[in-house]
Amino acid sequence: MIKYLRADDLCFYPTLQDSMFRDRAGQFKCCLNWDVSVSAHGWENDEYDALNPLYVIATAPNGSHLGSMRFLPTTGRTMINEHFAHLLKGHVIASASIWECTRFCLGPDASPRLAGQLMSAGGEVLKGFGLEGFAGVFDERMVRIYNRIGSGPEILGAQGQGKDRISVGIWRFSDEARARVSRRSGL
Hints:
The protein is an alpha+beta fold. It has a single domain (2-185), classed as 3-Layer(aba) Sandwich (Aminopeptidase), CATH 3.40.630.30. Helices cover 32% and strands 26% of the residues. The protein has helices at 14-31, 79-83, 114-129, 140-149, 175-185, and strands at 2-6, 54-59, 65-73, 98-106, 133-139, 154-159, 166-171. It is globular. The chain starts with a strand and ends with a helix.
């Protein structure tokens, strides 16, 4: 099941909240070795989680986390503008019709099709809020995943080579892309 929850509502789903932040720690700190903080109780959450973002979360039947991503309007504080503007040569993304998508996380029990299902759910966020697209930062390994899902981003800026390449891109989820992602993810 897909849930759309604001950060302020996570406290009503303690199992989901705990497992999401623990899975983020597992993926970003342990597997990818990113420079992120993990709390004493094993959570990876950051200053952007405190801004009441919208989470798109896939849940298991027991209510635990399978996969998720986080959305924030680019008219406010965003990770892209505060930490990755150098990839855009100092430009910022600030538009009421573009939201930032970060912390795309798949838990250890996620099915192979879950990434596409989350992408489809992200497309519903775009449609439901009347947005033009969502922007995100990603590393080179994600390009293969996005291509497999059927919806790759337009690259706005990048730095590095090979597996060390980091990019900022924007996804515009057309009806064709929505159908392709739905088909590939089994929806």
